């Protein structure tokens, strides 16, 4: 049965959306075309009618994941105009976000994978990272310019690193302290070392 042009376009969007989530969960190389298409409720044979290659889908899904993340930051900030940075830090450096492997920050989930991909994937991530930095700069009062400000870069690095480390460790208590230490550092400027671990209880 021939698929209409509008249905084909809708299917393509579905595949991109599903891939943007499944790649965050499994990594770019951790899931194949067959499973991606099954996740979208489509056959593997339809893939090459929609995309030139898996690399093509990887680029599209990367852009979609970063667009979704930026929209989430923006919506959170708009809902909390008195303290946009505090609101974004509260959701980003949370145990809930730590557990959102399919819907969480793509820089955390796929950053190391993206570093090993081609120029188009890297360009997608760079564009998203620059948007993160632009939002952070607007909230902390850094002047607009061609290059991002150092404070915004430090905040983003702290936040991304904290969520990554919180996912790496198995100890939930240690995981939570990584997030708390980062939040304290970002919001107060205190060194991360101020958030020391209390002795483990026997």
UniProtKB/TrEMBL annotation:
UniProt KW Ribonucleoprotein keyword: no
Domain HTH tetR-type: 9-69
UniProt keyword annotation of Isomerase present: no
Domain of life: Bacteria
Keywords: DNA-binding, Transcription, Transcription regulation
Annotated DNA-binding residue span(s): 32-51
InterPro entries: Homeodomain-like_sf (IPR009057), HTH_TetR (IPR001647), Tet_transcr_reg_TetR-rel_C_sf (IPR036271)
UniProt-recorded Gene Ontology molecular function terms: DNA binding
Any Pfam family matching the protein: TetR_N
Name the UniProt record assigns to this protein: TetR/AcrR family transcriptional regulator
Source organism of the structure: Mesorhizobium zhangyense
């Amino acid at each position: 049965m021939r698929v209409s042009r509008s249905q084909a376009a809708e299917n393509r969007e579905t595949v991109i959306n599903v891939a943007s989530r499944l790649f965050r969960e499994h990594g770019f190389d951790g899931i194949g075309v067959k499973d991606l298409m099954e996740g979208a409720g489509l056959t593997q044979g339809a893939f090459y009618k929609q995309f030139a290659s898996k690399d093509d889908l990887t680029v599209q899904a990367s852009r979609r994941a970063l667009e979704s993340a930026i929209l989430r930051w923006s919506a959170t900030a708009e809902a909390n105009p008195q303290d946009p940075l505090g609101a974004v830090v509260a959701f980003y450096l949370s145990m809930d976000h730590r557990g959102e492997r399919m819907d969480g920050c793509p820089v955390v989930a796929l950053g190391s994978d993206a570093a090993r991909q081609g120029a188009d994937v890297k360009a997608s991530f760079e564009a998203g990272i620059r948007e993160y930095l632009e939002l952070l700069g607007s909230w902390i009062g850094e002047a607009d310019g061609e290059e991002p400000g150092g404070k915004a870069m430090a905040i983003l690095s702290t936040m991304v690193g904290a969520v990554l480390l919180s996912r790496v460790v198995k100890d939930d208590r240690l995981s939570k302290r990584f997030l708390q230490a980062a939040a304290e550092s970002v919001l107060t400027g205190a060194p991360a070392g101020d958030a020391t671990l209390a002795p483990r209880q026997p």
